[in-house]
Amino acid sequence: VLNSKPRCLLVNMYLWITVLAGLALLPALLKTFFPYFFQDCVYMYRALGCGIRLNVYKRKTPFYSIVDCFLYAVKKHPRKAFIQFEGKTHSYEEVDKESNKVANALRSEAGLREGDTVALFLGNEPRFVWTWLGLAKLGCPAALLNFNIRSKSLLHCFSCCGASVLIAAAELRDAVEEILPALKEKGITVYLLSDECTTDGIQCIGQAIAKASDTPLSPSLRSNIHIRTTALYIYTSGTTGLPKAAYVTHERVWASSFIQGVCGVTSEDIFYINLPLYHSAGFLIGLVGSIERGNTVVLRRKFSASQFWDDCRKHNITVMQYIGETLRYLCNMPKKANDRDHKVRIAIGNGVRADVWKEFLNRFGRIHVGELYAATEGNVGFINYTDKVGVVGRINILSKVSDDMPFLALRKFDIEKEEPVRNAEGLCIPVGKDEVGLLVGKITKHTPFVGYAGNEQQTEKKRLGDVFVKGDLYFNSGDLLRIDHENFVYFHDRVGDTFRWKGENVATTEVADILMMVDCIEEANVYGVKVEGHEGRIGMAAVKLKEGREFDCVNTCSVLANYLPVYARPRFIRIQNSLEVTGTFKMKKVKLVEEGFDPTLIRDPLYFLDLPQKKYVPLSQEIHKSIVSQDIKL
């Protein structure tokens, strides 16, 4: 019989063995019963760290802006490469000096002072970066104009931000001259980043910048800047109408800059920007995020699918961006033996379909895809921090308890009326798990919605009242999302894109995904069109065929029949040589919807889905007449 002391030692030994065995089993148990526990913890750790930093910056006196963050990076590593562009490398110190020259020139030549709004009309180039930084050092908010727009759209975008000065690239002079009479009437000062220009009403500022001093500017020049001051005007893409100028405060600039950090990007990474700098993805997440991280940016004038991976290999890119259709463009390139020969480990963006996501990973290797959901003007967002394909984020405990996270919800939405469904008390109705609903985010002092410059009507449309209780106020995202039983968030469709036909809701993104499964179709843009005498809108698709292929009337019908109910199958197909997209690769639909399916107005080949024949047939004027007269039943 053991005496008490050895017995106690033995019991303790067994206890330790049990504890150690339990600890050894803990990861396996967590992975089995809580498969996303560790990823949740890493995300919450990073997000909380960013939240704490933002609160510190809010309380700092004087205010600590992204410009101060840049100046800290200049001091910390002046010789480090900041921008690599077309064979040239610009260090942090060099960009700092160039921005000082811009600021000093604009201060003396244009008399710019804190609070003056300046519109930038430039393409992707280093000069864009130091021109913006120069303005920021003066405390001047910049309106980032899309360099692809012209005429009335350009004048509209310039006018709504209230800018008094326009700075344009030399190669965009023709576009400026087109609206110059209107600018002159408004008393707008126009500067061209060129050494000479003979156009009356346009001043050249190239030489003034070149001769200006590169001495640092006093922080007192922007002493009144604070967290809620407008830092930028960034325009919506204009997929459903004219672009709107979203107010971007310094608080929003900081919040967007943290996305890289949340995704695991470090100061050692090399970040590839080939998206337009006038857009929030390229500018806020890409450029400003790289300033916050202190890393190196490889900047390209525009996206090129054929040169993408060569660029990544040449510059040792470790983090890439995507938006809209860019990953699909990469997947559509001819396969090469060195497809996986790269150092890219993170891809950040939004708008990738689940099937393309899978194909991208299978072909190009293990890359973490940080698919996110956000809007430039919105107060709610998600990001996929797990390895689950097809999701835009996940609801975790942080989003439920943190004051800095908006109280978000999904509410029932009437597609036909394009408004939330309300109960007898006039309040919005919640949706259940796996049910599609309108995403709304509570408007609070921590999660404000500022709105659009010069467009109070559109601002008010985005404010939704009486959601949970009478008198509350929420941001109306205009997007339909779904949350599953594991709390993963899925993007479903945009309110304006989803349409109702035969009493059923049709999601354009879902139909487009199925259409691109058809062997002959390369791209598809799905929308709903009005038909006289019918309620709702019937499905139509503009498609681009693969090179050298003809439209397969029978197979297209067969594929759609296999995957879609009758009401969701496009009854009209329009063949186009190319599909019109925005600068950020989002499909444009407004013009297509307006043109409808009338063969007398449309020169593109049109097809009609003949259900009895189980194939698409050419849409003749006789068929069109029979549809309008309702002799053909839809």
UniProtKB/TrEMBL annotation:
InterPro entries: AMP-bd_C, AMP-bd_C_sf, AMP-binding_CS, AMP-dep_synth/lig_dom, ANL_N_sf. It is an enzyme of class 6 (ligase). GO terms for cellular component: endoplasmic reticulum membrane; plasma membrane. The chain crosses the membrane at residues 14-38. One of its GO terms (biological process) is long-chain fatty acid import into cell. It is found in: Cell membrane. Gene3D superfamilies: 3.30.300.30, N-terminal domain of ligase-like. Its EC number is 6.2.1.3. SUPFAM superfamilies: Acetyl-CoA synthetase-like. GO terms for molecular function: long-chain fatty acid transmembrane transporter activity; long-chain fatty acid-CoA ligase activity; nucleotide binding. Signal peptide: none annotated. CDD domains: hsFATP2a_ACSVL_like. PROSITE patterns: AMP_BINDING. It catalyses: tetracosanoate + ATP + CoA = tetracosanoyl-CoA + AMP + diphosphate; a very long-chain fatty acid + ATP + CoA = a very long-chain fatty acyl-CoA + AMP + diphosphate; a long-chain fatty acid + ATP + CoA = a long-chain fatty acyl-CoA + AMP + diphosphate. Keywords: Cell membrane, Fatty acid metabolism, Ligase, Lipid metabolism, Lipid transport, Membrane, Nucleotide-binding, Transmembrane, Transmembrane helix, Transport. It is a multi-pass membrane protein. Residues 73-394 form the AMP-dependent synthetase/ligase domain. It comes from the Eukaryota. Pfam families: AMP-binding, AMP-binding_C. Residues 510-586 form the AMP-binding enzyme C-terminal domain. PANTHER family: LONG-CHAIN FATTY ACID TRANSPORT PROTEIN (PTHR43107), LONG-CHAIN FATTY ACID TRANSPORT PROTEIN 2 (PTHR43107:SF4). Belongs to the ATP-dependent AMP-binding enzyme family. NCBIfam families: PRK08279.1. This is long-chain-fatty-acid--CoA ligase. It comes from Cyprinus carpio (Common carp).
